[in-house]
Amino acid sequence: MMPTSADHAAADSPSDSPNSAYPHPTARPDKPEEACGVFGIYAPEEDVAKLTYFGLYALQHRGQESAGIATFQNGQVHLYKEMGLVSQVFNEHILRDLPGELAVGHTRYSTTGSSRVVNAQPAVVDTRLGSLALAHNGNLVNTAELRDELLQTNVQLMTTTDSEMIAFAIAEAVNSGKDWLEGAITAFKRCQGAFSLAIATPIGIMGARDPNGIRPLVIGTLQNEDSTTLRYVIASETCALDIIGADYLRDVEPGELVWITEAGLASFHWATRPERKLCIFEMIYFARPDSVMHEESLYSYRLRLGRQLAIESPAEVDLVMGVPDSGVPAAIGFSQESGIPYAEGLIKNRYVGRTFIQPTQTMRESGIRMKLNPLRDVLVGKRVLIVDDSIVRGTTSRKIVKALRDAGATEVHMRISSPPVTHPCFYGIDTDTQDQLIAATKSVEEITQQIGVDSLAYLSWEGMLLATREDPNSFCSACFTGDYPITVPEPVKRSKLMLEKLSV
Question: Partner of 146 at 20 to 30 A CA spacing, among 152, 234, 263, 321?
Answer without folding.
Answer: 234
